[in-house]
Design goal:
The protein is mainly alpha-helical. The chain contains six helices and two strands; from the N terminus they run αααααββα. Belongs to the DinB family.
């Protein structure tokens, strides 16, 4: 699989998982979503807000780079988070709407990237103002990995609240190869 195909797959997985996560979260009452459960960002709602905040921060870094893809201009209509624990939306429905818009942007942008864009360095400042420069592909993998990390926290919080997320593995989106799978086939990983 090429790096461009991998980025597109991760963007699709990101959207698929977020859609499922928000549907699961919507089964809980608002008070349960906002209840502090001792997670890094307190509640389910706080953690979901953090995921959107981090994506917006990273996407704005990519948008500020010389030669940024025109699709990233859509960020101008999005909130500008000031801190990693910012609560951009205190209602799940509004947060879900923003999440869907950002996921659509990520997926469209990821599908438009070529190898040159992935190999290009991105120079940015972190939230503390320290300057860095890293290859775009690695930073995109960080963005997707960060999503997976905190979605794992939310799935645990949902499970503790009695909500089953079901399958969360990237494996669910991978095409089945022609060769027979090893083992008895009862567990794909």
């Amino acid at each position: 699989m090429s790096r461009t195909d991998h980025v597109a797959l991760m963007a699709r997985y990101n959207r698929w998982m977020n859609e499922r996560l928000y549907r699961a979260a919507a089964t809980l009452p608002t008070a349960e979503l906002a209840r502090d459960r001792g997670a890094f960002f307190g509640s389910i709602l706080g953690t979901l807000n953090h995921l959107l905040v981090a994506d917006l921060i990273w996407l704005r870094r990519f948008a500020a780079a010389p030669g940024a893809h025109p699709l990233l201009a859509q960020l101008e209509a999005m909130p500008v988070p000031r801190t990693l624990d910012a609560v951009l939306f205190d209602r799940l429905d509004a947060l879900a709407d923003a999440r869907a818009r950002v996921d659509a942007l990520i997926e469209a942008w990821a599908g438009a990237l070529d190898e040159a864009a992935l190999a290009a360095p991105l120079r940015y400042r972190n939230t503390a103002g320290k300057a860095f420069g890293r290859e775009a592909f690695g930073l995109l993998m960080h963005l997707f990995n960060h999503q997976t990390h905190h979605r794992g926290q939310v799935t645990t919080l949902l499970s503790q609240a009695g909500v089953d997320m079901g399958v969360t593995d990237l494996l669910a989106l991978l095409p089945v190869a022609d060769a027979p799978a090893a083992g008895d086939g009862t567990h794909p990983h």
